[in-house]
Amino acid sequence: HVQLVESGGGSVQAGGSLTLSCTKSGRPLDDADMGWYRQAPGNECELVSILSANGSTYYAESVKGRLSISRDNAKNTVYLLLDSLKFEDTAMYYCKTPAGVRGPGTQVTVS
Q: Which residues on neighbouring strands pair with residue 108, listed in sequence order?
């Protein structure tokens, strides 16, 4: 069965950058889309980016121009580069498949 594990979160100052990783096991990385979501305390879960199986990408308006999603099929890993971070980017970040499989998340805190 498919499992996802995120990593790369941390505490950074505003304007800084982080690269999050989502490593998939159980199925090839490129046989399905992969989405990155985030949820801040008291807020609903928000879709921030999608990397489709065919390589196309989607970014939410709130992050467009500051985030970049990519993948390394050999490592079965999807990356999310967060640049020019803002306080409002503070959240738990999750990767999730269309079937609803989700990792435990990685925390991003911007101060």
A: 10, 91
